[in-house]
Amino acid sequence: MSFSISRRTFTAGAALMIAGARSAFAQGQKFFRIGTGGTSGTYYPIGGLIANSISSTGPNGVEGLVSTAVSSNGSVANINAISGGSSESGFTQSDVAYWAHSGTGLYDGKGKVEDLRLIATLYPETLHIVARADAGIKSVADLKGKRVSIDEPGSGTIVDARLVLAAYGLTEKDIHPEYLKPGPSGEKMRDNSLDAFFFVGGFPAGAIVELAATSGITLVPVSGPEADKLLEEQKFFSKNTVPADTYKGVGETETIAVAAQWVTSAKQDDELVYEITKSLWSEGTRNALDAGHAKGKSIVLENAITSLGIPLHPGAERFYKESGTLK
Q: Are 194 and 157 within 8 A, CB to CB?
């Protein structure tokens, strides 16, 4: 079956499409992407909950706003997308945000991302070292000679994995490194082709929950004098504990954490970011976070301006002053 379309009909249709697009812009429709992480981590589902809540269709959404959560390689990739203009905002670890804005650490010699601004600090991101229960890995030092995934290049996890390894006197040369997200890492652990993997994110992480339910795993503690020295040297780290039975069969585990932050560019409109921040801390978003993900309950207004390694966006700062959060 075939059909033809006249030039006049095509032109009329194109004109209608253009008119529709102009109408949408005339009505003030705005787009605000949120770069997250891999779909099996914590950033992606939290980003989806926030995007749905702040969009105009949300219970306390921003009028005319269309927000979407976009899967990505994580912190560094999200900051690069914001800096390059291909994303309006994204999630990042507090350490990576600080390095980017100051041009230090991971960004040493690469220039500063001076326009990076904070919308909100969200929740603690726990450093997980997940190991097969039969791999004989009881400490970070036991990773030597093992097959270990330290996450993909461009992620915040890979940066912190290298810092933790170094704290215990190890480098990538001392392990058999792989560069995989938690989902693929879990699959390789199931078929015994991987011994352990690093992941930085809120607990419980979906990929680890699934792995613990189907295979025997353990969490490797990050503790002792090596961890204490690391905490002293890298101020963005804090002590953290994964409670017993967060993952099936895994006891309480001492480790460290950084903060998950939602960042944007100083170039984003002040009024828009103000309305987005207001919507983030509305009753509708509160209900969605509480019901939608175990980590949602940890996202509270009292922590919104903690771990301030970069400046607040003026729109967000206005909201926090009005709400009394920022004195």
A: no
Please name which of 200, 293, 212 lies closest in space to residue 245, comparing C-alpha atoms.
212
Query: Residue 111's CB: how many other CB atoms inside 10 A?
Result: 10
pLDDT value at position 108?
87
Residue 196 in contact with residue 130, Cβ under 8 Å?
Answer: yes
CATH number of 28-123+260-322: 3.40.190.10
CA atoms within 13 A on the CB side of 243: 5
Do the strands 238-242 and 253-265 form a parallel or antiparallel pair, or are they unpaired? antiparallel
What's residue 280's pLDDT? Answer: 98
Torsion, Cα 214 217 222 224, to 10 degrees, reads 150
**pLDDT tens digits for 273-283?**
999 999 999 99
Domain layout of the chain by residue ranges? 28-123+260-322, 126-259
> How many angstroms separate the CA atoms of 26 and 143, rounded?
58
State the fold for domain 126-259: D-Maltodextrin-Binding Protein; domain 2 (3.40.190)
Asked if 168 and 174 touch (Cβ cutoff 8 Å), the reply is no
CA–CA dist 290, 298 (Å, integer): 9
**pLDDT, tens digit, 9 for 90 and up, residues 156-206:** 789 899 999 999 999 999 999 999 999 999 999 999 999 999 999 888 888
- Residue 128: Cβ within 10 Å count: 25
Report which residue type is found at 204. P
Q: What are phi and psi of 173, to 5 degrees?
A: -70, -20
Q: Do domains 28-123+260-322 and 126-259 have the same CATH topology?
A: yes
The model's pTM:
0.74
pLDDT of residue 27: 54
Q: Which residues pair with 218 in a beta bridge?
A: 131
Using DSSP's 3-state secondary structure scheme, residue 25 falls into: helix
Segments of the chain scoring below 70 in pLDDT: 1-27
- Asked if 35 and 85 touch (Cβ cutoff 8 Å), the reply is no
